[in-house]
Amino acid sequence: MVDNIEIMDHFSDHKILSLELTTFTALHDNNGSFFDFRIGDFLRIKKIIKEVNWNNEFLNKNTIEIWDCLKFKLVQLGNKYIPKRVKR
User: Fold this and answer.
1) Number of domains observed in the structure of the chain
2) Per-residue pLDDT tens for 9-28?
3) pTM, 2 dp
4) By residue range, what is the domain housing residue 50?
5) Is 11 a domain residue?
6) What is the DSSP code string of the chain?
7) Contact 33, 86 (CB under 8 A)
8) Is residue 10 part of a domain?
9) What is the mean pLDDT of residues 58-68?
10) More confident site: 23 or 69
11) Does a structural domain hold residue 42?
12) Which has the least CB within 10 A, 56, 61, 73, 81?
């Protein structure tokens, strides 16, 4: 929520805007599993990434589709080659 908006004195052609911003955050349960990056097989991940024909993967895709494609591949590789641990 934005409160107490005030336009303060300005310098040259710029003005200073003062406001109060109130935000709310949700607490997340941190007792789940997480990737143990210390023992991930990054050599295998790197090898597989190099073998992908990215020109073909990205052909006829817009920026958002390219990002989704790349992200999907990285998540797949992470799930396969980086073990997970459960927080104690």
Assistant:
1) 1
2) 766 777 787 888 888 877 76
3) 0.60
4) 33-88
5) no
6) -EEEEEEEEEETTEEEEEEEE----------SEEE-GGG--HHHHHHHHHHS-HHHHHTT--HHHHHHHHHHHHHHHHHHHS-EEE--
7) yes
8) no
9) 95
10) 69
11) yes
12) 56
